[in-house]
Amino acid sequence: MASAMAVSICGQTVIGALKKRPDRFGTYLLLCALPTSQGIYGLAGFFLLQPFLVPTITMLQASAILGIGIVMTVAGIFASIGQAKICANGIEATAAGHNVTGQTLTMAVFPELFGIFSFLVLFLVRATLLV
Predict the structure, then answer these.
(1) CATH value at residue 53
(2) What residue numbers bound the domain in which 72 lies?
(3) Which sign does the torsion angle of CA 37, 38, 43, 44 carry?
(4) What are the mean pLDDT values of the chain's consecutive 10-residue runs (131 residues total)?
(5) Structural domains counted in the chain
(6) Alpha-carbon distance 88 to 130, whole Å?
(7) What does the pLDDT read at residue 30?
(8) Residue 54 DSSP one-character state
(9) pTM reported for the whole predicted model
């Protein structure tokens, strides 16, 4: 959900940027695709927790899975939207003739870290569930 919103923000910016510099589509595509990582973390998280989704699940396990789901959702939304804002500005700047792709990617890493941190918490929760 978060990645879909973020890619939509960037995609709208790409459409405007293509009017100015259609030759930079590859750069725009790279910057537009960056916020999709949050969706990948969510999908990977499902597969990591799927073995616990059985009829004999305990209340503690269910609560832990719900909790990490909420953490990853909130972190993913804020990280994706933050990345989308950075990437959209980078796309606009590139369309205006500035060579800021590398700097945009660097700045977009910072919100990404919070999505990664939530994914790391999933690993900690999973390790706790295995005990």
Answers:
(1) 1.20.120.610
(2) 2-130
(3) positive
(4) 91 95 94 92 94 93 95 94 96 95 95 94 92 76
(5) 1
(6) 41
(7) 94
(8) S
(9) 0.87
